[in-house]
Amino acid sequence: MQRTLVVLIFSGVLERFPNLKFVSAENEVGWLPFFLQKLDQAQEEYRYLYPAPLKLKPSEYLRRQIFATFINDPVGVAVREFIGVENIMWSSDYPHTVSTWPHSREVVERDFKGVPESEKRQIVCENGEPGNVDGLAQNVKRVIIARTPRNCFEERYARLLVSCLEGDCGAGSAGVAIGGECTFGK
User: Which residues of the chain have pLDDT under 70?
Assistant: First the structure.
C-alpha cells in the first residue's frame, strides 16, 4: 500500500487528476500519520535533487483524494486528526474471518472510548454512506475501466464492479481495494 501511495503522489497522478479518489481497504490506518510525515519530509529534503511535479505537500494530496478503511485499529482512532476524520471509515469486514462480528459493537466502544460522539458517528457511519466520498463511484469506475485486467477473473470482477457502480448489482454490493505491487507480465 505504501508503494502505491508513493507512486500515486510523487508521479503527479493526484496533481493531474484532482477529482480522482482512491480507497485503501483493509490496510488499517494507524501507520498513516508517520508515513505522511516521512513523505512530507522527503519532499522537502530532496526537492532539488529529485524534483516532483507537486504543488502541495504529499499529506495534502492524501487528505484531498485518499480514503482508508480499518477494522480493528485503536491506534488509528487515536491518531485520527493527523489523517483527517473525514478520510477514514470503520468496517466490520463481515463475513470474513478477520471480521469483528459478532463483537463489532464492543470493539467500536473500546476503540472509540473518549472520542467525541460526532467524530465516532462520522467515522463509523457517515463517511461510508453513498455520496459522502464525493464522486467516488464514478472515479472508481474510470479507474477500473482504464486498468488492463491481469486475467479472466479480474476482467469479470471489473465488469461486476462497473455494473454495481452503475446501480445494477441487485442485493449485493461492491468494494474496491488498492494495494500491493502488480507483477503480472514482469
Answer: 130-186
